[in-house]
Design a protein that fits this description.
By secondary structure, this protein is an alpha/beta fold. It folds into two domains: 72 residues; 149 residues, no CATH class. 45% of the residues lie in helices and 12% in strands. Helix 1 packs across helix 2, helix 2 crosses helix 4 and helix 4 packs across helix 9. GO terms for molecular function: metal ion binding.
Length: 266
Amino acid sequence: MLSYPATVALSSRTLNHLAERIRGHRKQRRSRWRRLDPGRQALLALAHLRNGDTYTRLAAGFEIGVATAWRYVQEAIALLSAAADDLDTAMRRIRLLAYAILDGTLIPIDRVADQRPYYSGKHKRHGVNVQVIADAAGRLVWASPALPGSVHDLSAARSHGIIDALTSADVMTFADKGYQGARGSVRTPFKRRRFRPKLSRRQKVVNRANAKIRARGERAIATLKTWKILVKLRCCPRRATAIVQAILALHHVEANRGLPPEMWTP
């Protein structure tokens, strides 16, 4: 079998952050000898999440069994997802924003036995729905737990309590036409209807301004999908939430270069 060196586009701070969590977890459980030390296990998990390396490739590269690679990665994901911000915690920073951008994205998955709930008619593929909140510069602030791909964006946002939270915090939020009817502090473009076949000039101007703002929100989704594991999940869809939350936790560490949470910028 041939091997070759590879890189993970993350800082050493992120590696050290995850390694410290793993080290603390092992100490708490009084774990004895492991095939990989905390630093190597952290690197293994980051290679899986960031580069999308399969368990088979990771096992060969780290000279461990496939089952061991799977177990080490799942352990790291569980530790990270437990540390990820929930919506209430994220709102402490979101309410300080000039405005927020709300959008949904579909994370593709393999077809599963119970495939109907996961088929998105909008995207014509199977996946899970994740709601993303970005700041005015398009930086990723928060990502929601995953729901089946057939769930509409507005229904998903309501299910997670995002609309109520943004409205209660009085945060002006821009969203696309899929969120029409959200009301509260959410602003959506005007939409042509049967009784209104044409938009006025003012409505067209408003729609263009809304589109320019929402375009920045696409950066947050692009940031989320720089983690190659999300290009297409090849695991049980029920594990998608933990993976997204783990990536969100790592993103904040990477973006803020190890600053304490109270000093984080969204």
